[in-house]
Design goal:
319 residues, alpha+beta, Double-stranded beta-helix, eight-stranded mixed β-sheet, four-stranded antiparallel β-sheet, 17 strands, 19% helix, globular, binds succinic acid
Length: 319
């Protein structure tokens, strides 16, 4: 089923004369849609930008195929949706393009070292929620893509909140979580990770349920790799309660799994999703080279409007 958007794109962007519809094909009931009929290598018409934004807000992650962007086009595409952050505030960026973060399979020393996958939620995360202003969104492109393996998964944290019982919703809207960096899921060696994080310490307290700044939806904001405790609870209460929420967030019906091809692009709303980078790539000799840029985010707010609280570190800036 493909939803034809009312927005049209010009086949000759500069003329503005000839318009064709872009298509939005949902990939699951709650999460993810494939967009076609748009060339991301060129500047987009405002109506096309708006149509993509609407699809993103609805489906939480949107995908494009066959785009083959270079670094400059990748940055140009993302900038049409807002200011950009440095590639990665802790792990660095490309020498020439400060907006680009290289996500390479970790070779050769750690080729066979996958991050440990010990629990259902291992490695799942929302990007950089240790920051007081986590990125609003991210654009990831596949450059070198393995012939099989290496899929990425996303989950819809709005659907996760909505499917909680009213009794539990009433409890979680009052809770706050402490977010900090940990090595699991980053694909970094312990030493490299420690060095980077010590250089840029970052800890924040965010509401367990945030209010999405554009849609007003309630989001179960429980980034598993970052939330370490629930404020005011004992360690045991906190761990058990978080596990309940993480299991809810990762229910299979809220997720989508994307099979990459060279030239594929994923654009996700980091305020409404968590995602899982693949670990199966460490079990083959295939290479994998991806690049990501992130859009600057606001300070999250609880449903009563209270903003998140910084504990350590500076806000993420723009480049
Ligand atoms: C990420 O976590 O942003 C990268 C996901 C991936 O490598 O598939």
């Amino acid at each position: 089923m493909s939803e034809a958007l009312t927005e049209k794109r010009p086949t000759r962007p500069d003329s503005g004369a000839v318009l064709e519809p872009i298509g939005v094909q949902p990939l699951s009931v709650h999460t993810g849609a494939l967009i076609d009929g748009v060339d991301l290598t060129r500047p987009l018409q405002p109506k096309t930008i708006d149509a993509i934004r609407q699809a993103l807000l609805k489906w939480k992650v949107v995908f494009f195929r066959g785009q083959n962007l270079d670094h400059a086009q990748h940055v140009q595409f993302a900038r049409q949706f807002g200011a950009l952050t440095p590639g990665h505030v802790v792990f660095g960026h490309d020498d020439t393009y400060p907006e680009i973060y290289s996500i390479a399979k970790f070779r050769p020393a750690n080729q066979n070292q996958a991050p440990p996958v010990t629990r259902l939620w291992s490695g799942w995360h929302t990007d950089v929620t240790a920051a007081i202003n986590p990125p609003a969104a991210a654009v990831l492109r596949g450059d070198v893509v393995p012939p099989y393996g290496g899929d990425t998964q996303w989950t819809n944290l709005v659907a996760a909140y909505q499917s909680l019982s009213p009794a539990l919703q009433a409890i979680v809207v009052k809770l706050w979580g402490v977010h900090r960096f940990s090595a699991a899921g980053t694909g970094k060696s312990a030493k490299e990770f420690e060095r980077s994080v010590n250089n840029r310490p970052m800890v924040s307290e965010h509401p367990i349920v945030t209010m999405h700044p554009e849609t007003g939806e309630r989001v179960l904001f429980v980034s598993p790799s970052y939330v370490k405790s629930i404020s005011g609870m004992t360690d045991r209460e906190s761990q058990q309660f978080l596990e309940l929420l993480w299991e809810q967030a990762l229910r299979p019906e809220f997720t989508v799994r994307f099979r990459w091809e060279p030239g594929s692009v994923a654009f996700w709303d980091n305020r409404a999703t968590a995602h899982l980078a693949p670990t199966d790539i460490y079990q083959t000799d295939f290479d994998r080279q991806f690049y990501r840029v992130t859009l600057l985010g606001e300070i999250p707010r609880a449903v009563d409007g209270t903003p998140s609280r910084p504990i350590e570190g500076d806000p993420i800036g723009s480049v």
